[in-house]
Amino acid sequence: MTVLVMLALAGLVVMILTAVVIGVTDSAQRGAWRRIADERRRSWERRQRQLHGDRFHVDAWGDEDTD
Asked: How many degrees, rounded to 5, is the angle at CA 29 between CA 27 and CA 10?
């Protein structure tokens, strides 16, 4: 019975440590991911202007919400 409780506690500790490591890693790389997303968005907008001209300008993502 003691072995089963210790095994469950060890599993819980491993899950908590994994969550902490993932959280720290994610927060450390957040800036890089934001820069990549910003570069991709600028590239997409540049392609859209080349394809369609400047007539399709969108100020906000929620422009379709016309409730």
From this structure: 55
**Both structure tokens of 40:** 């991709």
What pLDDT score does 15 carry? 98
Helix-then-strand count for the chain, H and E: 1, 0
- What is the dihedral sign for C-alpha 38, 40, 46, 52? negative
* DSSP 8-state symbol, 64: G
Are the C-beta atoms of residues 48 and 56 closer than 8 Å to each other? Answer: yes
Q: What are phi and psi of 21, to 5 degrees?
A: -65, -45
**Given a cut of 80, is residue 66 above it in pLDDT?**
no
Structure tokens at 21: 């490591």
